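Record copied across here:
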Amino acid sequence: MIDILVYLFENYQDFSAHPKPDALARKLSAAGFEEEEITVALDWLDTLKTSQAASFECSPRAVRVYTTEEQSRLGIDCLNFIVFLEAAGVVSPTVREQILDRAMSLEDDPVPLARFKIIVLMVLWSRDEDLEPLIVEELLYDADPELMH
């Protein structure tokens, strides 16, 4: 699934520019992706699109306490990374909650930092905001290729 998300980011700079799901599934299949992986990725993207930012709304002054399950599945590296992004002003508390929701939906246990960075990238990309090249480089191109597969 992560490979498909990276492929979409690299080939469709605008989140809403990719084709409808059926046409996209055909394009992904033609690009060599497996049908089951395509289905999982498209379902994940659909959930990302339909999740309402308002459902993740939280006060910027609130203190986030991570559940035991979040701590276990995401681990110290992912949690430190999201804290870093929030402190640097890259993500708001609302976007943080969307990232955590999408990361917790992965089957990985624990979630590798490289995959977590791709989730961060996809959530930011879905918001149709211009992404700073240095952020994209950190999230996409600095990821460990071994953890991508």
